[in-house]
Queue: 3 jobs
Job 1
Amino acid sequence: MPKSKLPTRIDGNRKETGASEKTGYKTGRGYKAIPAAGVKPGQEIKADAGPKIVAGAAGEKSGYKTGSHSGNRAGARVRTGAVASPRSGSSSAAAKANRGTDAPVRGRATAGPNSEERSVRGQKEIAGPKADLANTGDRASTRGKAVSRGKIGSSNKGAQAAHGANRGKAHKGKAKPGMMADSGKAITVMQHEAGTVSVETPPNKGRVVSDVKKDSARSPAGRHQAKGSGARRGKLQPRERQLANKGQLLDRDLVLHQLQMINHPLEIEELSRQLNLPDADRLLLILKELEREGEVVRTRKNRYGVSKKMNLSVGVLQGHPKGFAFLMPDDKSEDIYISKENLSGAMHGDRVVARPLGFGLRGKRTEGEVIRILERANERIVGRFETSGSQFGFVVPDEKKLGWDIFVPQNHQQGAHNGDKVVVEITRWPEVRRNPEGKIVEAFGASGDPGVDILSIIKKYGLPEEFPPRVLQEAGAISQDVAAEDHDGRWDLRELPMVTIDGEDAKDLDDAVSLERLDNGSYRLGVHIADVSYYVREDSELDKEAFQRGTSVYLVDRVIPMLPQMLSNGICSLNAGVDRFAVSVFMEINGEGHVVRYEIGPAVIRIDERMTYTSVRRILDERDATLCQRYADFVETFDRMRDLCLILRDRRHRRGALDFDFPECKVYLDESGRPMDVCLMEQSIANQIIEEFMLMANETVAQHLFHLEVPSLYRVHEEPKEEKLSALNEFLHGFGYHIPASGGVHPRFFQDILTQVEGRPEQQVVHMVILRSLQHARYAPASLGHFGLAVRLYTHFTSPIRRYPDLVVHRVLREVIAHRTLSAERIERLEQQMAEYAVQSSKREQVAEEAERETVDLKKVEYIRQFMGEIFDGFVSSVTNFGMFIALSNGIEGLVHVSTMADDYYLFNDRNYTLTGEHTKKSFRIGDKVRVQLVRASLEDRQIDFELVTGTEQEQELE
């Protein structure tokens, strides 16, 4: 494909070639615009939102604004209200090569070559020239507020700047989101250093094109806070909406606010009078919903009060095998210890309301008791059935955190035999001195039978084994060929050289990449993602099933896909040599790693080569002659990909995002499912290339949707909790390090520590403790930022085959491209959906991670059992008050219990994570090399036990 042209669009049987990639040719102050066909120079075209586009553009509704106009002699002039495009100054984020976890991001956020942006707790610092979107002296309106000259002058809702005679006045008005012209053509906007703006309307129907202005910056922090963060609890459910009279809704926030304003719980009649309601039906439904969510509590006298004002905590129980539990509060406050006697029948995973009992014998940790169970998490439990005589039996749960065996009467055993793996349904919940009761609903094999171990984990986590017939029927109706009549409105990229790079065993290929070197020295990176949203439409049977699954689950011996294989491995998979639909993101990236221009649009593509990480690594690192000859057409491209990858990594490093490099443990199985080998997989340059490219695509799409102001899903990672940060600093002080926390904590502070410890003896322990201090990433309908990635706008876009949030993001993009703007009703519905999608996706992701980890741990134990009694060299990977975990070179970990360390009494220091002998003063800390003997490997407990090998000869050999 010629570098100077945009992709060709197919429109029925007619082909049109896109306009020049450059918006125009350079003049003294900027670029000349290319005149649009049928538009005379100087002709004014009125835009809907107030700004005027003068000559050279047929596109009303430009959607973005700036306060300057260009004096291009070719006829294109933009007055007040032309596009103020997304910034290159926002930071970068990505998904790792496996597209399932967030990759670390490093680099410094800049607002252009002469200005710099740094965000600490959402605050911006601008250095260098003035960063106003308009020309010097213009004033902008941010949601109606004037911003002084020289400062950030953009608005989240589309700031309109004044120019010329109106200079100094803040205009009203609002640009419509999007960059689509009324004619269906896209508007390309170029921002230039001199402040000029050029507008071009290429004939590619339906695409979205934008450029990034280098000298501007905007802080998106908190933009969706009001309508996003409270969406889950601030919107009415359908049944409340049906009760509304002529659209007048009783808002849940209003009910909650009214209860908070009163200093005592209220009866429903009293609350109804205060809200001036003719009847209490709707109010009662809302109160019940708030009660289910734990926002309010109904007292024994049928009064409703706010949980927090009643000193109650709502959250999820984290059980312990010994029977007690910890409440993990929703508000992220300190965990509450709850003894077995105070659980009131609640079990691990249940959502409950608890009240504090003060400080207990466990030190300063708050103790509490469960007063209400809001949601049960264990209606069905997987375990091993054990008989006790002929009258009854017990099911011992696989999940040890449940803390109870389930009593099963004889008439509810369903023919299960002693030692069988079963699924038991709870019929009676536990009481203080009474086990829960249940009935067996499924027995699926004896413990130890081939395949039963993995099947037990699948059933334990409730992973769906088969697709319902209705879903398979809908999937079967989808053609496995790309029809020519469906090409309308898409870029034709079938002649553009591109490849997929994945693991050897990957079958669901949802991303491809292309790369060109432009005449100006920049790179033109193309990331092409399978257009799954074209096939999986909203509210279809496929969509409903994908929502319930949330993600594909990659177990050690199988994949449980989010979509049926005829889609995930078929028409949606970017297989080589066949036509496929995709959503393509083209990014022009300069030598500093900044995106200066991007384009997003639907496309039809054809993959040239299906590459693997191994083959690309051998080409780049080893110059394998056979592979270089086989893929001769792409060797130079791979070299350029490596160059761009290193540029992007360097930018991330300068920005200071966290960078943990923990290799992944890989288990190799034979045909019967038994482990043959276990090893650590180091990331190669091929993995890093895909990681960096997906990173840029995710960030670019997040910025694009944010600036269009349409509801979407974001990948967020909040700052560490204050108490964890304090504990981390206490630990780091022992090594002479400190993370400043006054005025806000920035990930750069963490990255500085990681850089300082690199290559030092304490590197392993510092990495581990810092990682444990961080919160878990999740999905949210608001752009809350991603701390670990040091980015404020990040989404998941690159894996729609295997992750539901990515599919949702594709669907929103597709809708904006097709309709240009969204109605108020559609935006309201999307906002409600995003809150629900975020909760479900986060929940299913966590379930998938736990199931995947447990299957790997199971096979590790099964593999190492054959080496019982043998001696291994390893290192201390973790230290606790009951012993230390030892990691072997292949990634297998086992416990050395403190009771087996017989040469002394060892004391645990929780400040520096060490075990120290009381008399010998011998100390063990994370990273120390040790020699151990394998003494136990239990498949039932998934536990490996080591004992330290002592003796002068062995210690000398180890040294």
Note: The chain is about 25% helix and 25% strand.
Job 2
Amino acid sequence: MNRWTVLFLVALLCATVVLGCSGKSSITDPVTPDLSASVDPASNSQTHLWGYYDVIIDIETQTVEVVSDRTVMFTANVVQFLNGSPVNLSFNILDTPIGPDYIDVNIDVTIRHPFPGMPGYNGYDVRGVFIGDASGSLNYNGDCEYAVHGTDQFMAENDGYTRWFNPDEFTNPGLFGYTPGMFESAGFNGDATINPYRYFADGLGTNADVFQFLINTNEDGVFSSGSVNTRNYYLRFPNSKGVAYGYAVTANWVSEFPLDHPANAPEALACDCTQTPDVYYIDGTTNGGDIVLDFSLFGWHDNPSDIYIESNVLTTAYQLNTTEIIPVGGNDVFSTWHVEVPADNVGGLEGNEYWVIAEYDDLDYENEYGILNTAAPDLVAAFFRFDLFVLDVLPCTDPILDHMDPATGYIDGALDDAEIIGDEFEAGSDLACYLTDGVTTVPGTDVTWVDAQTVTADFDFGAAGADVGWYDLYFTDGDGCEVVLEDALEVMEVDWPIEVASGNNYHVSKFIEDSNGVYHIMSSYDVNPTSGPWQMHWFHSEDGGLTWTAEGNIWPVGSAYGTCSTTGHLLAADDNGGVYFVTGGSSYRSYLCYLDTDSLGEPSTWETTDWSSKAITYYSGRAPVYWALEVSPDGAIFCYARHYSWPVYNRYIYATSWANIPPTGSGMTFPSYIAGLGSIQEQLSSAARGIVWNPDTETFFLAIGGRWNNYYCGAYVLEYNPTGNTFTYRSSFEFLFSSVSGLGWYNDIYYGDLTIDSNDNIHWVYVTTWPNPPTMPYTRQKNEFVMNYGTNQSGSWVEEEPINDPSTTYRFPNVLNYPDPRNYYRPGYINLVVNSNDDLIMTWKKCNNDPEFMASVNDTSGGSFPDPSVLMDTTGDQVIYQGPQGEAVGTSGEVALTFTGLPYVGAPGRGALYFVITDGETPFD
């Protein structure tokens, strides 16, 4: 019969010492406890024996006998905890595999709390400690001796190691020491001073992970009165040792008073650790690397004052420095650290391990009764032991992936020499990469190392059958290291921009998305650049903007070759499938056209004859040239038409629906006087849509420009309220020259735009000339062109006039006196929208002398006043002739735009028609 002798020591330790507490742990008199007052569990530690047993295991019969050893049972126990009853400690043998030179014992240990209904005796952080022999000692402290695997009794799958109540250092029998039992295996005297334990608590499963349990429990690690808890032990006994070991149980407790509960242990109780393989061993001369660890320690109160890493691959214990000791993560019950320790003593591939040691500088193993133990006065520490994985090849150095250039591809296209940008790239035979969306893999071919920051590769999306979406980049460095860059590249259905109509002579184009997701473009076309006439060409998408119908000539009165507006036409849409188009024509009239898309079939069947038209404004002898148009979601229409610069000539209409507009009309006269503003002498509408509907106020906001009261020249915002048919002045950029009457006449206001964000705030931008001041007509054309921004986002109307970019990027100096420098240096075709991300996106053409596509993005969601210098950033270099014009589309922050390209050589100034979808930040070619 082999015998297992179990020393059942229960130590009720103090609750965790809080960070910042001073002094060492102390012990109160266990014989005559002070029951008159509560004891602070954070500063008063009490350690008591609960009971002592011999546990005898018969390997042959697979039975366990528990015998109460009353010769060593103490009487100084405050609670007489286990009270000598063997039923409070039980064992269940699961298996006893026998090896060539060892016996394994797989056993469940169950502890029953003997006092049901007495919560004053709840224990906390109960640990069942396996005590064996020691053949190794730590460099951290030579007195910390531990069992060596293969030589000594060994416990696998433990929850940690503790020094408390080992029989070699706590030698005084009884209350504060280890007392051997009468049934102890002959000759056994476990001399390990740090020993492994299993943690016992209510709700903790037999084989559960203690770290995950502790970071998620709401029960303070309690072992409550009357409860029964079981934990599994897997033990290995070398034949040279026999099946013999000691067993102690420690628990934390202060008193039975409610204020002293819970009373948790002061040191760390569990550790979760991840090793990144980097230590390697090739042979005796080729070895090294770093012990790379990310570990978390669970503790109820303090973080340790010091942390050490101990390993057989280190010549000395490594103490974390002042930077490393600062946690990199965690919460109020656990903290996480990262450390990389150079391995300087790697001797082979097998049998390697490391320890994480957490030390506390305000706790030691002394007691205030002077009962000696040789562990004192060392500081209390928690010990956690792990296997160390050692590579049999040289480790790789992970490269750093930053981005790909370009970051977009197309399903039917390919990329040659796409750049992978990052750092620490290594050349070598393992260099490889591929893109995948989890379904389709696009291999990288001709992968070439350029330098430590750049690798190039080819990707054929068409050959791989790639679908639209985001693709992750899987990259293998030249030394074999594999890393992943998520969302490295987006595959789209088509390359941007699309050439919607080839050839030449396309003039300013306008764009709108209808409520069914169909895109519409209207563009005027010069049939004969030398003699006219103009046509209006309509294009619409058939599949989300990727395929366009052939150009369709459209004219609101039925003539495909009548005279139409060259620049001022506009588009709008409602939420009921209606698309609206306004332009001018013969007989000095404006025409509003309507397409009811909900009444039609598939877009591929739509014809120009599906449009209806009505004449809406008229003034004899004055042809309309510019408009502002907006339609509310429910179909209410507001349209402004400029027939000439004086107010009496200008017209507007408002109707609650298309059906309520009469077949022919001249519109209402635009007011020549606005309260709060004064007498208006000229209006210039936006070249974009120019009006926005505000659902909050159920009114229209109109951006126009002009002169008023003879002395002012500026751009201003008006609010039109259909109820009462009233206009209200809201904001303006204005210049006053009071010293010389009439000078305001000679400052110029040019086209801008306005838009509305999701919080119903108005944003607007206008181009003006910067006054010197001028002294006569046309000298104003020597002035600088500047961009001006205004908003009511801050709660009141605010303007920046002008935006004064220190780099002068958005101030355009005129250097020519004549001919008119406005033909060369004026920014134009300003288009302002708010996308689905509440970004304010402005696109424009820089100027005729430098015809680049420009874009700016500014976040409006924070409710703060946008920074004009941010608003005016240049992000594109697409060369254009006219445009861009467009609207925000989709739910991913995109903006769809149309523009015309540079004309062919010898043409009078118009080119092909293009369509693009962009985020406003990524340039397109």
Note: The first strand starts at residue 10 and ends at 13.
Job 3
Amino acid sequence: MLTVGHIVQPKLLDCKPGTTIREAAAAMSAARCGSMVVRESGDVAGIWTERDALALDLGAEGILDTPISRVMSSPVKTIAADMPLGEAALRFKQEGVRHFLVTDGAGTVLGMVTQTDVVQNQGVEFFVHLKEVGAVMSGQPALLGAGVTVAEAAARMRSGRWDAVVVEAAGRFGILTERDIVRLIGEGRVATALGEAASFPLVTVAARDSLFHARKLFAEKRFRHLGVVGDGGELLGLVTYGDLLASIEQDYVRELQEALREQEERFRLSQHSLLLAEKVSETTLEGIMVTAPDGTIESVNPAFAQMFGYSHDELIGQNPRLFKSGRHAPGFYRRMRQALASSGEWVSEIWNRRKDGTLFPLRVKISAVREKDGALTNYVAAYVDISQQRQTLQGLRESEERLATLIEALPDAVFFKDGEGRWQIINTPAKRLFDLDGVAWRGKTDAELAALRPRLQEIHAACQASDERAWAQGGILHEVEVIPASEGKPRYFEVSKIPLFGEDGSRHALVILGRDATERREAEIALRRERDFTEAVLDTAGSLIAVLDRKGRVVRFNRTAERITGYAAEEVTGRHFWECFLPEEEGTRVSQVFERIMEGDIVPRYENHWLMKDGSRRLFDWSNAALRDGQGRVEYLITIGIDITERKRMEDELRHLNENLEQQVREEVEKNLRQERLLIQQSRHAAMGEMIGNIAHQWRQPLNALALLLANIKDAYEFDELDAETLDQSVEEGQRMIRRMSATIDDFRNFFRPNKKKVRFSVLQAVEDTLSILGASLKNHNILVTLEGEEDAVAWGYPNEYSQVLLNILSNAKEAILGRGNAEGRITIRLRTDGERIALAVRDSGGGIDEAIMAKIFDPYFTTKESGTGIGLYMSKIIVESNMNGRIEARNVEGGAEFTVSCPVAPPPGNGAAAG
């Protein structure tokens, strides 16, 4: 709908109150403007129009030099910018004016609108097409002679309430209008005769022409008056813009009334829709908030109030800034405003604050509500509390992490593929099995991996075919797959494949578990060959077969039955089978089935438990067949049983696994934690043993010296040489030795005290501390230790733990040297750094490490010593690689082995690093 605001003229012609009438008229004429606004101190004080010019007594002396403030109209009439043009046309008629100041809702002046603007922009083509000019003509024109002066004409126009007069001169017609009066005032020509002042010739239209044609001429010529002539060319009168507006008023009002009736009907329907919307808003679980364009909250639904902890009345009139959490940068809200301005919609996740101060996450969608003309009326925001959803996602992530930990801890190869056969998750045994170290395997199919590892092309093809069988079967598939090894000897894997389907039946994922069964399979093959030979001779049936007579007594019991039940055939033959095998609770049901069979109603399949000789139970799937006598009666029942105990157990275990997977993950994690605690405890015990041994080496010399001192005291006493001075010296020497031994204890205690946090520490100092502990032992065994390389390097980590790693490596080197029986040994410690990492290499002359076990030396419990624990190097690897972000490696060198420990260079002290 077109409003006044769409056609307002923002530029106003204005002047000060002291401006003369002559100056104002000249400015209006130059600007071709029909009005001038008078401003005082920036505010609009009045208006002077062309019609006001007619009110002047132009014959009065000095009238043209009168200040305009004395003749202006005040106050100035105003009209709202949002008023429709139809209502504006009525206001022009009611007020009898041709100019309105246009203001906004706050009273600010936006510009000017004229009667001409309304006529030009009003959609009245329908009305003006249907009417002729003669129907709206003003009547006989005011006719003045050419000799009448401008001042006299203005007086005649004022008394006759005319806005124009026709001037006749020498048989020609011209016209003098209000605008001409203003122009002549500005030029100071109010005494000029109309023959010179009027505009010639008078532009005319025929009385039979349509108002549409007249309106078009008004627009083209920029006139507000046209002469109207008859069929013979005679002048009948004048038609003006005002006549045009008045002529369409009645028709427009009638149309407006009809539109109002339609609007009332739409309003009734809208009220119904609003009622439904209100009910939806009240019952929805989403929080709904409606704000004004400036953000003021106008309404909220109950879910919103409950979500934020406020009452309805507390929220109305507030601003959404009330809920700001402080967790979002200003750019976050700037992007929100930009999105609303460009597309009218914004969707995101946001943190807000409840009334009690707690922060919580929400998903919010804000939509701008606009009128048909594009005017913004409201914002509507819908909020969904996603706290629970985030908690669920966090729990899912934690569950996935626990599952990943369990999968990695399993010794079996584990694979996860998606529905299209792309590899998604594998553990280390699976990676090692398919030689995938350094290969970008994730997201690839078996065919794509086969192209990267041609020697495994056949097994990848077999895996892919096996996958398809699992999908086709729709349930767990157990198979044996053969993996060729690098030395050509194949390895056998028992593979279980579990296909997972989506709700729509689509392939979702495939879980694959593979266990190396090579050794067991080889043993089984050898056993099966022997067993097959025996069973082929003794018994051809592989199932439990029993033959029963009409009374249920066993008449035949095959070897397989003997093997499964534990009974020899002689033990059960002639006895009722329910006495031997049936559990008490199944006796009635099975005996009823047997009676039905004996009556000729053969039950081909059923399941039940049998008691074995050792008291255990097993579940069998039975197939029945009857042998009949000559009269057709059932004489014997042949029942063939398949032991399905393990299958049922596995099905139950799988179901239990699916139902309790998370519990199993927790148990496995706890098991790993217990094992790690055990390793740590064992490591401590081993370290304690090492420490006691080293203390013994350190104390051996002081103890020998102390024993010698005591012997000297005794000898001096026996030979009467023990005087007070000698005794004091001996006591002082003994106390000095005891203090040295006490200091040794303190050194060892500090050495094995664990560090609480990472610090900067000297690697050279750590080496010297370690050698101070182990030095006596190495020296006693004639092992020479040399230190080469840079003067020092500062590392980042745990100095005591680092020293323990070095102590373990040096102790192993000592044991290796002593194990060779060498009279002398040598250990070389080399320190180097590249600016980012520090490498400390310990090389010994102990003969090196057997290449066959090189890959296992860091495994837990692996040891080559008779009394070793197998956890020293394992714990060293954990300390260096897991705790200090370093790396420990071993290799054989000429004459011995070399262990290299690398760790990060310490950051500068100014970066928050503590000194150690």
Note: The mean pLDDT is 82.
